[in-house]
Amino acid sequence: MKRKFVKVMFFGALALSTVTYVGCKDYDDDIDNLQTQIDANKASIADLQKFVDAGNWVKSVEPVTGGFKVTFNDGKSYSIINGAKGDKGDKGDTGAPGVAGGQGTPGSKVTIDPETGEWLIDKKGTGWYAKATDGHSPYIADGTNGDKGYWYFGDDKANDGKGGFVKGDKAQGDRGEVTEGTNGKSPYIEDGYWYYYDDAAGKFVKGSQAAGTDGVSPFIDEDGYWCYWDINAENEDGTKGKLVRGDYAQTSVYVVEAADRPAWELHVGALNEDGTYTDKTIILPTADKLSSMTVVSIADGKISEGMSEVTMYYGILAKGTTVKFHNVTYGSTEKATTLVGANSSVMHALINPVSVDFSEYPVELINSHGEVCYTVLSKEKNLSENPLTTRADGEKKWNQGIYDLTVSLIADKAADNSLNNKAIAYALRAKDAWGNNIISNYDVKVIAKNEALDITNKEVDVVYTSSAKLDELFAAELSKVAAHYYSIEKADLEAIGAVFDEATNTISSPTKQGTIEVKVNYLKTDGTKVEGGNAKTFTVNFTYDTGADITIADAVVWNLTKGADATDPSNNTSDLVVNSTDDLFAILNKEFTGKKKPTVRLKSIGFAAGDKISVNGNEYAYESGSIDLVGEQPVTITDNKGKVTGYKIAFQFNPTMVAAVMHNAVLEIINPDYQPTLGDEVIKKVNVKVEVKNAGIFAFTPLSAYFTSSETAIAYGTPDKSNAVVNQDLYALFDEMSAEDKGHISFDEKAPNFGTDDNPEMGANWLVNKTNSVIAVPLYKSTKNDGVYSTRRMTIAYQPFGNKRLATISKEFNLTVRSAIKEGSHPDIAASKAKVLSIKESEKLFKIKPADFTVKDVKDVAVTIAKTSRDSRVTDVTIELSSEIAKYAEIAGATSTPVAFEGELTVQLKATTLSIASKVEGYALVKITDTWGAVTEVKCPIVMKADGAN
To answer: Where is the signal peptide (predicted)?
Structure first.
């Protein structure tokens, strides 16, 4: 029977009602608050009912201050609070507001067994007694020891097992003088006696002693009413003293988990029209609705409906027959006794929907009359390697919706021998939250036989690194008999370094190979004892066999960093931690001769996808020594008391050789007592995934002065006139890099093809070589336009530690090298400052000089174009007249055009120009050729006025 409740304390229900202890002074306020909390709880309870009606179910019920919180499967929570203050409850997980309620500690129904006087919580014994004669009656302290108002209850385990009273919770509130209303009627203690409210008398009257020799402590019955021991009440036989019902525990709101179905029961006291109270129950399901169950058979990975017939054995000892076996007496002098074989059978059930938490559903085996003759001991998810997994490690997965049910015969049901050898059809039965039955087909085939069988001698082999759980190894034989125990020679155990634990019937894993003979003494189902010389023998051979490999689920991960030291890889480590709960721990913690323990050796390293890996489009084999173990392994982990709590196996990595991929490492656990003739060097093989990651150890950081976007860079470089190229250091485009980093960087480019795929004509290479950061860009207007002002795709790549097995960190970008002068500032002379020519004598010529023009580079630095102080980046400056002006004017002394513009020049009308009939506009064009090979043009406007114009 399930026995869960929010407050696991026998006086929990009593404490709920103690909020009614109030004084006269604030009685009216408390009545108002009490009404508020009851109304608020009603609202919250209505919300709970809505959730249930909508198909939700409860995931948890947990205590909160003054009450409890109910959380549903969708994450929403509601709080039911008992409190005189009527405060708002806490918010749920989703932020839904809690509700007001009454103070108090939620609890379970508390009753007293009428025969034994034992306190019962939800009809389940507690080990505490209410009968006064046993001295265990709970009471509230009178304050003698400064603990006034606290509950004390009897605990047989207190005082080092001697028993006695222990201090419990505080009885919440003190008694007040109540003269009216329905509040404040909870029993209380004064001078060692219980006082309860007598409605007829309209006052509190004296009842039984709280602890002592004359009575029973008050409690709340199943209907929610107080029951107390009335010392003056007269029984039918004329004796005095009996239990009578008192007032309803009006503020009692508590929750109890149902014993035979997946539900919590929320109990609320509802006020009736006549002033009495009725206990109302709201069902809160703890699992999704189960729609069907089907019994199936699973054999060799195949599933089919129905099941094969199984047999269970029992025997009946006649009335008056008793048998003492291994210090236990079987049988009875008063009635016949059934001895059931320690047998059980596993059957399989397919449940729907698959999402149901089947563990919440108690399951029974019934016949068509609804009688239960077999009990379901356990429900476990059915696991298998196939067909639900394709993993090579053989990890078992749950076969969705299928559970293994362990079923056993109920002894009392076989007592009348009515089941003997009967082929009765059975079905699985479960109840939903509301008690509705859900059953499978009647295709469960179980036969009970009244038959006493003997155990047969058996022999099994066990890997000597493992323990031998005898009850599991020989379960098929032991299922035939009612009871058994083992006898093992101590010398035989010592010979192989093993011990026997009688509590668990387990032989520990030995330090050596060898054989143990186990004598099995047993009690047959008919009461016959087989012991001593007649005992059967189970033989356990502890043999050398590595068995199945251990596979570690979590990978060992090493994150490569720039700080990794290639010259000292022992600093580059990552640990596999083996905890005491891991399968590998028992093997590593095993002691051999001289308390020596196993060591660990790295057998091999492979890649997840085979012997080779592909990195940057190339294949590489594993480099021996790139991953190894750090010295002798493992290393013990101990607590502050020196107890071994785990082990560490440290891997070391060489960054110049290792591959940044997932590796499959195979470890060998080495036997310190290795004997070549036995071939027992390797105890176990362990598969471990080892992953090397190198993300983020380096990054190229472009400088905003050069990059206009993440993939577009503009540079100006340094012109080399002698070689007709412009040089640019690619490192200058990025944030500063260390000399060590530069040692792992390479460059690449994508030159343009001016031909065809069949007959390529590639542009000039800018890179001198792939490790030189300085590029040589041909001057502007080069033969194939593959120089300055052309754009080229460049790649700069970082190879961590120069190790090609690690992923390359690279950046691609488009680079254009331009002229710093051409990209600078060089405005034309304004029209308002235009030069003027006319036939007037004073306007027949004008002077023009380089200083008339303003030229600056891209950094706003002035560029001098006059010859006397010409900028070194300027190779040539010329001037020429536009075609319109050249018809009528010329540059004095010029024999050809354009004219070198090195100093001041004279522009004049030609001798043939005698008249200008209409206005003519044009300009003088200055061309500046720089060392990048680019030409910058600047204009000076010229106006030729018509004759007679001003």
So the answer is: 1-22
Domains of the chain: 292-450 (no CATH), 458-543 (2.60.40.1080), 550-686 (no CATH), 707-817 (2.60.40), 831-944 (2.60.40.10)
DSSP bridge partners of 253: 268
* Among 610, 603, 592, CA closest to 673: 592
| The two structure tokens encoding residue 32 | 């108002």
Using CA atoms, how far residue 677 sits from 87, 544, 673, 820, in Å, is 79, 12, 12, 84
Sign of the CA dihedral running 197, 198, 201, 202: positive
Largest CA distance in the chain: 161
| CA end-to-end span of the chain | 122
Are residues 502 and 488 in contact, defined by beta-carbon separation less than 8 angstroms?
A: no
Nearest residue to 477 (alpha-carbon basis) of 408, 537, 410: 537
DSSP structure class, residue 466: S
Cis peptide before 655 (omega within 30 of 0): no
Beta strands in 9-143 (DSSP E): 58-64, 67-72, 77-81, 110-112, 118-121, 124-129, 139-140
- Asked if residue 211 lies in contact with residue 194, where contact means CB atoms within 8 angstroms, the answer is no
Scan for tokens 């120009």, then name that residue. Answer: 913
Distinct helix (H) and strand (E) counts, the chain: 9, 66
Place of tokens 């006493």: 452
Q: How far apart are CA 214 and CA 80, in angstroms?
A: 38
10-residue averages of pLDDT along the chain (950 residues):
34 32 38 48 68 83 75 81 39 35 41 63 61 51 63 60 60 40 52 64 66 55 66 79 68 71 79 71 86 84 80 91 94 90 79 85 88 84 59 58 85 85 89 89 89 95 89 92 95 93 94 91 96 96 84 93 82 93 92 91 79 78 87 94 95 91 92 84 93 86 95 96 95 95 96 93 94 95 83 95 89 97 97 95 95 96 96 96 96 95 96 93 97 96 92
Give kind and range of the element (H or E) at residue 364.
strand 363-366
Q: How far apart are CA 780 and CA 413, in angstroms?
A: 106
Phi, psi of 152, rounded to the nearest 5 degrees: -125, 140
What single letter denotes the amino acid at residue 890?
A: E
* The residue count for the chain: 950
Distance of CA 644 to the CA centre of its chain: 27
In angstroms, the CA 422 to CA 142 distance is: 64
Nearest to 573 by CA among 629, 624, 622: 629
